[in-house]
Amino acid sequence: MKVLFLNPQGNFDKNDSHLTEHPDFGGQLIYVKEVSKELANLNVSVDIVTRQIIDRDWPEFSKELDYFDINKNPTIVRIPFDGEKFLNKEQLWPYLKEYVDNILSFYKGKNIDFITTHYADGGYSGVLLRSKLGLNFSFTGHSLGAQKMDKLNVSSKNFEDLDKEYHFSQRIMAERLSMQYASKIIVSTSMERYEQYSHPLYADVSEVANDSKYKVIPPGVNTEIFNDDLTDLDQDTVAQIENKLNKQQKPFIVLSSRLDAKKNHIAVVKAYANSRDLQDKANLGIFLRGIPDPFTDIQKLSEKERSILTPILEEIEKADIKDKVYFFDLKSQLALATAYKLFSKLKSVFVLPSFYEPFGLAPIEAGACGLAVVATKNGGPSEIFSDGSGVLINPEDIQDIVEGLIKALNNYDYFSKKVKKRVLENYTWKSTARGYLEVIEEGVKLPKKTLEKVPPLDANEIILDYLKNKKI
Ligand SMILES: O=c1ccn([C@@H]2O[C@H](COP(=O)(O)OP(=O)(O)O[C@H]3O[C@H](CO)[C@@H](O)[C@H](O)[C@H]3O)[C@@H](O)[C@H]2O)c(=O)[nH]1
Ligand SMILES: O=P(O)(O)OC[C@H]1O[C@](O)(CO)[C@@H](O)[C@@H]1O
């Protein structure tokens, strides 16, 4: 059976070279890699169909065909479109038709049984492919534009400016079409279905009440990397940490997300800066891949990174806590897991203060390594930790963050044990792949149906109407 995974952003390579160094390199890449590898173990032939990038600054993405391992399944198929240079995901919208046309040429005469699509750009490409071939597809959103718009406080006044940067008009129309024409919408939690997909910007097309339209498939944790085995450590990371800590033995509060405004790092820095109690109990550790020392490297960073880091550094200087805040540059998931394990020995706490988190792989990975977890109550974590195995906080309330961190630090043994059990029992990529296989087998049996006409990729009016009335 041949299944395509559509991921037009083009950032797959076997070494995860830039994971978290750029806003487009994060959870979606891990998710698609792990699910497709486990599907391959179930005898499905998987192609991850992505963008070919021939750019001196991004040399990992140029080969037409690539593989994660010697089994050559999954195959990474890189399709050229929109020139050769690396582009941010927001710039791809006008060129997805070219992507799909080139996919059609690449697969001409070859069999395709089913398509899984990822993120709004993959979903829209699935719609275009269906319009040509009638092939059924599933849609996995990973992160939806409407929640991002709401949490970035987009209003009818600033919409035009923010739309230039984020291209919500195209993204939200792409999501609407994907929801409408997918044979199945795959969500990570049932909360994602009922809360995120029932947003007024989607409610008329997302069929939230229709059980046959949705399948809840929780993602997983790669326990070969994220576990509590202290004999399996990345030695460079051990050296980096030992060198920085210089034998001090306090617990850490660990922040390790991509530098993206919606991840809201600053809230934890403020909570820490404002609480003597927290400062007495723990140090603050911030993991930033590719930025060993932000105080000296800040000028070398992109404007976006600077705009997120500058207030963090100012807060640290203002509160005079430079000696308690440590930055770590961790270059792989193995390095990340090593840091989590070493900090677990110090009874440390992982914190994710996102304004909104669609699911959140990072907290379950940290929990698998033994860290206690404090996470935003907005989004996936409220379902993941609904059994009380993690502490939920309001990311917009600094005092609540302080209290959540203190609770987790004071009860480390209880939370660490409980979260580890929760993650190992409920979140494995093998069972994620089994869920996908069910969707694929069901989709293959459905009749093929081409679409008459795909509407233009523009939700400008729908969004403005929503912003003016806060309803459609
Ligand atoms: O220093 C680091 C920090 C993170 N990671 C990895 O990056 C991934 C981050 O994933 P996640 O925590 O899920 O966040 P996002 O990158 O924002 O991923 C998007 O896609 C995911 C998969 O659908 C969802 O879980 C998220 O909510 C959604 O925002 C994890 O696997 C981490 O191991 C690293 O490799 N190094
Ligand atoms: O912030 P956004 O635009 O909702 O997107 C989340 C991003 O995270 C990712 O998971 C990073 O891989 C991609 O899906 C997407 O580029």
Describe what you observe in this structure:
The protein is of the alpha/beta class. The chain folds into 2 domains: 2-220 and 431-469, 3-Layer(aba) Sandwich (Rossmann fold); 235-426, Glycogen Phosphorylase B (Rossmann fold), CATH 3.40.50. Helix content is 43%, strand content 13%. The chain is built from 19 helices and 14 strands. Strand 3 and strand 4 (75-79) form a beta hairpin. The radius of gyration is 22 Å and the shape is globular. The two termini are 42 Å apart. The structure holds uridine-5'-diphosphate-glucose and 6-O-phosphono-beta-D-fructofuranose.
The major beta sheet can be summarized as:
8 strands, mixed
Name given to the CATH architecture of the largest domain: 3-Layer(aba) Sandwich
Shape: globular
> Which parts are unreliable, with pLDDT below 50 for 5 consecutive residues or more?
none
Task: Name the hetero compounds present.
Answer: uridine-5'-diphosphate-glucose, 6-O-phosphono-beta-D-fructofuranose
Mean of residue pLDDT? Answer: 95
**Radius of gyration from CA coordinates:** 22 Å
Query: So how many helices?
Result: 19
Whole-Å distance between the termini?
42 Å
